[in-house]
Structure prediction request, 246 residues.
Amino acid sequence: MGSMSLWEYANPKKFLTTSERILPFFWAAAAVCLVVGLIWGFFFTPDDFRQGSTVKIIYLHVPSAMMAINIWVMMLVTSLIWIVRRHHVSALAARAAAPIGIVMTLIALATGAIWGQPMWGTWWAWDPRLTSFLILFLFYLGYVALWEAIENPDTAADLTSVLCLVGSVFAILSRYAVLFWNQGLHQGASLSLDKEENVADVFYYPLLVCIAGFVFLFIALVLYRTGTEIRARRIRALATRTRAQA
Prediction:
């Protein structure tokens, strides 16, 4: 029964009604978590004994990098739903998420470069994780471009879903490159089940609040943008029907 109720949201009208009702909660939760987390992290935590004040970049870098990878995973899941069940809302949700993923990847790359310059002495290094992350960014761009290049929406959804499957390899590499290749400048995970790999508690708790803020912000944005995509699809369908009748 629970699984059946989940598929009800594949109905565009049901999706729009529900998303409009819950959106204010996610906007508010995102605003509170981001304001609290960033102020706490940037103004009320000490400098690191090795990295100095540059350590505070983690409050933007870690959440944006996590979201960049997980947004692609979300796109993979919704693309698979489209391929298997042909639910248009899932395809449009993947399309809506991609530009958000681009921004998150850009934030992660930019903040990584800002952190890397004083720590590594260079803005960029062809490190395994950095390289796979850059390739993931290019896949995001290609995904958006493919949607825009193909006029038929169902064909575009099919081809972008295939591209999403291929790009998922680089999403996995971006997450686990440090483990696959021992060499490389990039440090290990800042958040881990292994207590030895976690950042110190003074940085850890505001970082969790920032991550929650980024998650809530993504949910709010993807719900809003998916609703916009549904309405745009309706407008295109009405315009096509009007031209056919004329």
Q: What stands out?
A: Helices lie at 2-7, 12-43, 58-85, 88-120, 128-149, 153-180, 201-245. The CA atoms of residues 212 and 218 lie 10 Å apart.
